Amino acid sequence: MSDVLPAWTAITDWLAVHAPASHATLRPGATVAEVRSAEDELGLTLPADLATLLMVCDGTVDASALDRDPDEYDPGLFLAQHHLLPLEEIAHVRGRGGNTDPFWGSWVPFAVTDYSLPPWGGLAVDAGGRLATFHLAGGEPPAEPLTSPGHGSLGQFLAALAEALTQGTGPLAAAVVPGFHRGRAGVGPFAG
Fold first, then answer.
1. What's the sign of the alpha-carbon dihedral 57, 118, 171, 17?
2. Model confidence, pTM
3. Residue 10 above 90 pLDDT?
4. Do the Cβ atoms of 66 and 83 come closer than 8 Å?
5. Candidates 3.40.1580, 3.30.450, 3.30.70, 3.30.420; correct CATH number of 4-177?
6. Which domain of life is it from (predicted)?
7. Which of the pair, 106 or 166, is modelled with greater confidence?
C-alpha cells in the first residue's frame, strides 16, 4: 500500500496551520480523466504514486505570478525547495507525444526548483517508482544518469518531508525548517 496519501495529508495539514501562504499555493486534484489524458499526451503511464498525488493535488500555482514582492520567500517551495508541477507543466518539461527528449526515458519530472526559470533542476520519478534528481546544464539534459537524492521512492520522500515538518526530525529536517519572511509563513532553508 502506498504511503503517499498519509504523508501528503500530514504535509498539507501542517501547511494549513503553520504556513497558510504555502497551503494557498496548492491546486485542487486532477480528475482520473485528466490524468489519463496527460498519459496519452505523454505516451506513457504515470507512476502510480505520482498519479495518486496528482489526483489529490495537481501541483502548485506559480507564486511568481501572484502579487508578491519578488524578494519575498516563494511560498510554493515547501516541497524541500521544489515546486510540485501540475500535469500540464509535467508535459511541458518532459515533452509531449513523440517530442520527449530521449534523456527522460521512463522518468517523469514532477517538481522543479524555480517556476520562473526553465527547469534547470528538480525531482523525477520513474515507472518503477524510484525517485531521482535532475539538473539540466545550460538547458540540455546531462549525459550522465539521474542521481538519487537519498529517498528510494516518492512515498518515502513525502514521508521524510512530513516527518521534518511535523516533528522536526529525519533526513530532510535541515532542508525544510519552517520560518517566516516579512510576516508571511513559508517553509524553506533556515537562514539563521
1. negative
2. 0.82
3. yes
4. no
5. 3.40.1580
6. Bacteria
7. 166
Report whether 57 contacts 27 (CB < 8 A): yes
Q: Where does the chain show beta strands of DSSP type E?
A: 83-84, 108-112, 121-125, 131-135, 178-181, 184-187
Mean pLDDT over 6-30 rounds to 92
Give the model's pLDDT for residue 48.
Answer: 94
Euclidean distance between CA atoms 62 and 27, whole angstroms: 10
What mean pLDDT is predicted for residues 160-182? 71
Q: Any idea what DSSP says for residue 143? A: S
The radius of gyration of the chain from alpha carbons, rounded to an integer in Å, stands at 16
Beta-strand relationship, 184-187 and 178-181 = antiparallel
> pLDDT for 69-124, tens place per residue?
555 567 777 777 888 999 998 988 887 665 666 777 778 889 988 766 666 788 88
Buried b (16+ CB within 10 A) or exposed e, 68-91: eeeeebbbbbbbbbbbbbbbebbb
CA distances from 21 to 25, 116, 153 (A): 7, 18, 27
Which residue ranges make up each domain of the chain? 4-177
